[in-house]
Amino acid sequence: MLRKTLAFATAASAALSGAGIMLSAAPAMAQNEQFIPRLVYRTGAYAPNGIPFANGAADYITMLNERDGGIGGVKLVMEECETGYATDKGVECYERLKGKGPTGAAYFSPLSTGITFALTEKAPGDKIPLLTTGYGRSESRNGAVFAWNFIAVGSYWTAADIAIQHIAKEVGGMANLKGKKISLVYHDSPYGKEPIPALEARAKLNGFTFKAIPVTHPGVEQKSQWLGIRQDRPDYVLLWGWGVMNSTSIKEAAAVAYPRDKIIGVWWSGAEPDVIPAGDQATGYKALLLQHPAGKFGVHGDIEKHVYAKGQGVGKEQFGQVLYNRGLIDSLIGTEAIRTAQAKFGNKPLTGEQVRWGFENLNLTAARIKELGFEGMLAPIKFSCEDHQGADQGRVHQWDGKEWKIISDFYTADRKILDPMVAEQSAKYAAEKKITPRDCAKES
Amino acid sequence: MLYREAGQFKTSYAADMAIFPIRQDRIGVIALLVFAFVGIPLLAHFQLWPLGSDYFLRAILIPFLILSLAAIGVNILVGYCGQISLGSGAFMAIGAYSAYKFGTGVHIPLEFLGTEISIAPLPMIVSILLGGLMAAIVGILFGIPSLRIKGLYLAVATLAAQFFFDWVFLRVKWFTNYAPSGSVAAPDFYFFGYLVNSPIERYLLCLVFVTIFALIAKNLVRGNIGRQWMAIRDMDIAAELMGIRPLYAKLTAFAVSSFIVGVAGALWAFIYLGAWEPLAFSIDRSLQLLFMVIIGGLGSILGSFLGAAFILILPIFLDQVPHALGVPVTVETVSHLVFIVTGALICYLLIVEPHGFARLWSIAKEKLRLWPFPY
What we know:
- The complex is a heterodimer of chains A (444) and B (375).
- Chain A is an alpha/beta fold.
- Chain A has helices spanning 2-24, 47-68, 87-97, 113-126, 156-171, 190-193, 196-206, 223-232, 244-255, 272-275, 298-308, 322-345, 352-360, 366-371, 415-433, and strands spanning 33-40, 75-82, 130-131, 149-150, 181-187, 209-215, 236-240, 263-265, 286-289, 363-364, 381-382, 393-399, 404-406, 411-412.
- Chain A has 2 domains: 33-154 and 294-393 and 428-433, Rossmann fold; 156-289, 3-Layer(aba) Sandwich (Rossmann fold), CATH 3.40.50.2300.
- Helices cover 44% and strands 14% of the residues of chain A.
- In chain A, α2 crosses α11, α3 (87-97) packs parallel to α4 (113-126) and α12 packs across α13 (352-360).
- The model of chain A is unreliable at 18-29 (pLDDT under 50).
- With 375 residues, chain B is mainly alpha-helical.
- Chain B folds into 2 domains: 1-52, no CATH class; 53-370, ABC transporter involved in vitamin B12 uptake, BtuC (Orthogonal Bundle), CATH 1.10.3470.
- Chain B has helices at residues 13-16, 23-45, 55-80, 88-104, 124-143, 151-171, 199-222, 224-234, 236-241, 246-273, 283-296, 301-325, 331-352, 356-370, and strands spanning 106-110, 115-119, 184-185, 190-191, 194-195, 275-276.
- In chain B, the strands form 3 sheets. Chain B has a two-stranded antiparallel sheet.
- In chain B, β4 and β5 form a beta hairpin.
- The longest helix of chain B is centred in the last third of the chain and has 28 residues, at 246-273.
- The two termini of chain B are 13 Å apart.
- The relative contact order of chain B is 0.15.
- At the A-B interface, α1, β2, α3, α4 and α6 of A face α3, β6, α12, α13 and α14 of B.
């Protein structure tokens, strides 16, 4: 009986002290600080890809603090919360972090399409912008309806369009796409399904046969999908995978002898953790670039000098890798939005609503990008009230067995095809949620 | 000393059959309910600790209430009727997607008949209850195999339900109103024309649901039907010989359980997540619910609450301890630690008390009766 009493006492005291600690967790914060919450996943099936991105995003913010003392004299404070790529955990993290700091969260960058969908419902109520660099709801480009989403640099529809343009170039022009077979191997989640409407639209326009082949989460079992591809022999396979699914796809493609240079991954399937586990089998595999390649640029020098030289920073192992660099860009866009907003609201900690103004008025010109040390990584990007994407460009790179090599020029997604889709889907969302679209002509 | 029923005489059948026959229990439960219905809203209104921010409401209390409700549903099936089910996630999903369809308007084109079935969007409360009803119907269908197969084999059969409905909601676009990404967003929640939006309103709505269903469940398991379930659980052949129809007993257990789980699923989707995809109701959710029931205590309504609290809140709490104490560890280490500590605690608890928290609680009550003069 004594043991049971002990067990009970342990459980009870744990529960009580638990409530105590959890709720008193509000460390004192200095007033001149801007809080940046960071939803990350460093564990689970998607950790190999989540870690470099999280490290890049963190190192850039650390570098701003070390080099410039923050932004406009306001120190940036960040706190990570592990989501494990799970939507319900992401929502919990969002609730935990949204109110921290003197003015609350500046913006959220969830790096998960599922969490983005859930937060899209919550952010307008809390007035916190969502920065989704190269992922998220494609129709959230329409800022009149999705006032708080910023799908910076490119959406999955942009990616799908660029991939088809690249295939067209390889086969010798859009006209030659007619009669070709293009299959999409996708992660069976909102993330993987996003490009399908854009590819279907292109299939109708250019006359190729499109087939979508789902792979269930987390994507380690895809034998039957690739056997189907062996029978079907599509001319090209597009890969919309994430985490361990990508390297598995490449290995399975090799197992059925599908040529790797006919596979084109989205920009989330084109990083080092996707190809290195597949070894030599990955040689020749192509993937889209969210503008930026792997490698070191001006900003990397600053990070080495101001962060690593001082023994700080977390991403030394992935320094200069594709996803690390994307993390840098993610933080760049977020922090530049804060800087833009400071120009209007003053050099002080800003609220989410003020940062949103910063996003909508963010204009990164080529000169400014050079000044920030991102030349060669990012083409100019400009948000506005209607356009929450700001750019439509992408490139293609190829894995040569050792490193990624850029093999194409910039493609620009065809907005004549994509804009009506954005308008249609966002109008549907507005009708379903009873949102009255903002009149962008009256603002700004 | 305080907790002793000496002197409490029951002079009527009603008093003898009360849910809480001991006065101290009654007072305790009423105090808890008053605190939940009045105290917490007041604390939230005046922004007092621990409700200074809406984190506690939104991220702890609301999911706790909803998962407790789901755990009650699972407990009826697994704990009271002894039918192991791994399909609870699927029944949550059925509740969520059916409620979504009813809430946004059902439209079934029947072109070959030259007609169509159209139902205008229904009020949210009705949609949620209809979601539960759909889950109950499907629960009965998937409960039919339980008449022939038992134990672990039944668990495998219910696993089929889990994977089947994962597939249905991923593939059949009608259920997601043809959303290109397959993710759906809950419509605004109106309660008799009043928009339920603030965390406290949502909390109260969940609380009302949980209170009503917990009361219904408690009364069901105390009554005729609950006794049939327990007879089937303890020895189905003996129960049959005593005149209990297994068909009726098992299928009612499946129906009631799925109904409650379905309502919980609809609340999870509408109130907690806001936008969801089938992954929110994957096999992980089924296992999580099963663990809640096992750790809380099989065959106990109270156990469902305790189990939900343990499985849901403990990891969240452990996750925040190092940061709150100012220990500089990475989130990676913390989340590994959470797994280790939670797992170890589960093992420890199940070794020390295999009947779960509910049993610990009743042992504590026995001790309190004698305290401070144990003999």
